[in-house]
Structure formats: structure tokens, C-alpha cells
Design goal:
Number of helices: 6
Strand order of the largest sheet: 1-8-3-6
Length: 170
């Protein structure tokens, strides 16, 4: 094993250890969530409920976080790292640390399919909430999560609008 492989293994072991630690300790999970810009609109007392219903997961470089056309299941907020979204094998966006993906899971009771594939750019640590976790949160917490999601969707819409050529608006 060369020095680069040893350093890479050490980094991966450290990230895996960090992921397990944060997932095992809800106070650590809460603190990491509090650092994410996505959760800015959620007061701490409501964020505690979300922290208790979520998990921390780790993805390696090129892992599929979401597969295009799969039934929507979990919702994610990236705590560390970044990912790229692809539609029909074309890159359509980037998700950065602090941003969410899979937000449709929050807005629908049906089982729609994913509109894009999302691959980890490198090592990614994310908060994950499944459909049952989402359905179980209180109405008050849901109100703040809806606000956070609407702000996130607004930012995504603004970013998409910046990619529309000015002459196509005529």
C-alpha cells in the first residue's frame, strides 16, 4: 500500500467513525443539523424532534444517493460533501453541503418516482429521513420543515432560472 492509499484509507475510516458517532448520539446529530443552512428556519426545540427521527448515512464517491425513476423513499440533507444530479444521463445540478434532496417525500403521500439520479461527488455524510419518520413528526414541527423546504425549493428555482437564456423569454 502506497502513502496515498494509506491516507485515503485513514480518511475513509475517520469519516465512517464520524458518521457512526453522529448517528449514535442524538445531541451530536442535533449539533450537526443546527450547522446546516437548510435548518435555519427551524427553531431548536422543533429541530430536536427531527434529530430524534433521523439517521446519519455515509456515501462514498460515485455512490448513487438517489436512482432516477425509483419510488421516492428517503429525504436527505447533506451535512458534508456534495453531489451531482443527472436527468437522462445529463448533469442538471449540484447539491452542496447544507442543501436537501428528495424533498418530494415531504410533499406527497403517494409514491411518485424520482425525477433524477444523484451521485456523490466524493465522500458524503447526510441526514436521512424515511417516509414513516416524516409522517410521524408533529404538526408544529411540520410547519417549520415546510418553511425550510419551500425556501430550499425557491433557491433551486432561482438557480434553474439563471440557466434559462435571456432570449428564450421573448
Amino acid at each position: 500500500m502506497n502513502d496515498f492509499e494509506k491516507i485515503n484509507d485513514d480518511i475513509l475510516n475517520s469519516l465512517n467513525s464520524f458518521t457512526k458517532q453522529v448517528d449514535a448520539d442524538s445531541a451530536d446529530r442535533f449539533n450537526k443539523m443546527r450547522e446546516c443552512s437548510f435548518f435555519d428556519p427551524v427553531p431548536s426545540e422543533y429541530l430536536l424532534e427531527i434529530a430524534s427521527r433521523s439517521r446519519i448515512v455515509h456515501f462514498s464517491a460515485k455512490d448513487k444517493i438517489i436512482t432516477e425513476h425509483d419510488v421516492i423513499r428517503p429525504f436527505y440533507v447533506l451535512i458534508f460533501g456534495s453531489a451531482t444530479a443527472y436527468f437522462d444521463h445529463r448533469m442538471v445540478g449540484h447539491i452542496l453541503s447544507g442543501e436537501c434532496l428528495g424533498e418530494s417525500a415531504f410533499f406527497t403521500k403517494e409514491a411518485p418516482t424520482r425525477s433524477a439520479a444523484v451521485l456523490a461527488d466524493g465522500e458524503v455524510i447526510a441526514l436521512e429521513m424515511g417516509q414513516l419518520d416524516i409522517e410521524g413528526i408533529s404538526d408544529a414541527t411540520r410547519m417549520f420543515m415546510d418553511k425550510a423546504l419551500l425556501l430550499a425549493l425557491f433557491k433551486k428555482l432561482q438557480a434553474a432560472n439563471r440557466h434559462i437564456p435571456a432570449n428564450s423569454m421573448n
